[in-house]
Design a protein that fits this description.
Layout: E1 2-5, E2 12-15, E3 19-21, E4 24-26, H1 32-39, E5 47-53, E6 58-64, E7 72-78, E8 81-87, E9 98-103, E10 110-113, E11 117-123, E12 128-134, E13 143-145, H2 167-170, H3 175-180
Antiparallel strand pairs: 1-2, 2-10, 3-4, 5-12, 6-11, 6-13, 7-10, 7-12, 8-9, 8-11
C-alpha cells in the first residue's frame, strides 16, 4: 500500500495495491506496522462505526475534544464520497486548511485522521456506506461540530442543490466561532508527529 501525508500535517491518504485474478481482486486496507512507520503513531482500534447515506447527504465537519481525542481511519465501502479533512488545531500553521479525497470501493483509498483534524464528506451516490475505525470509544459530550458550509472555509463541495444535513450539523458554528468559544484543540495538544522520545530518539 502507498501511504502519503496530506497537506494537512499528520493526516494520511492510504492507497492499496489490489491483486487481481479471475475471481476479482484482493487488497490490504490497512496494516498497523505500515501506518506506524509512516505516521509515527500507534493506531489501535477501539470502536468501529458505519454510516449509510442518501445521495447529496453532507456529514460533518466532525472532530473530538482532546482529551479524550479519537483518531479515525475512514474508508468508503459502498457507493462513493467526496471526503474532506480539515485542520481544526488552533495555532497550527495550516489551521483551517483542508485536503480532499475521492473515496470509493473500487479504489479502496482511505484516510487516516489524527486528533485535531476534522472530517466531513458528501455522499455522491445513494446508499453510500462509510466505515470508521476509531482509536477511542465514543464519549458523549466530546464531539466537535463545525459548519461544513462555513463560507470562510469555502470547502469545494460543488453542490448542485441544497445538501441533506442533520439539524445538528446545520446549526454548527463556523470555524472562527468555535475557536473564539474555546471549543477547538490546540496544535500543542495534537502535534502531527510524535516527539522524538516516543519514537525512541534521544
Amino acid at each position: 500500500m502507498r501511504i502519503t501525508e496530506m497537506t494537512v500535517p499528520g493526516a494520511y491518504r492510504v492507497e492499496p495495491e489490489p491483486l487481481s485474478d479471475r475471481r476479482g481482486h484482493f487488497f490490504e486496507s490497512v496494516r498497523a506496522g505500515a501506518l506506524l512507520a509512516a505516521s509515527g503513531w500507534e493506531f489501535t482500534v477501539r470502536q468501529v462505526n458505519y454510516s449509510v447515506s442518501r445521495r447529496n447527504t453532507l456529514r460533518g465537519i466532525h472532530g473530538t475534544k482532546v482529551p479524550p481525542g479519537q483518531a479515525k481511519f475512514v474508508t468508503c465501502v459502498r457507493g462513493s464520497a467526496l471526503d474532506i479533512a480539515v485542520d481544526l488545531r488552533v495555532g497550527s500553521p495550516t489551521f483551517g486548511h483542508y485536503d480532499v479525497t475521492l473515496q470509493s470501493p473500487e479504489t479502496g483509498t482511505a484516510v487516516y485522521l489524527p486528533d485535531g483534524v476534522g472530517h466531513a464528506f458528501l455522499a455522491l451516490t445513494d446508499d453510500t456506506c462509510m466505515s470508521y475505525l476509531c482509536s477511542q470509544e465514543y464519549v458523549p459530550g466530546t464531539m466537535i461540530d463545525i459548519d461544513a458550509l462555513d463560507p470562510e472555509l469555502a470547502l469545494p463541495w460543488d453542490l448542485k442543490e441544497p445538501p441533506i444535513r442533520s439539524d445538528k450539523d446545520a446549526a454548527a458554528p463556523t470555524l472562527a466561532e468555535a475557536a473564539a468559544a474555546g471549543l477547538l484543540p490546540t496544535w500543542e495538544q495534537c502535534p502531527p508527529h510524535p516527539p522524538a522520545a516516543v519514537l525512541g530518539g534521544p
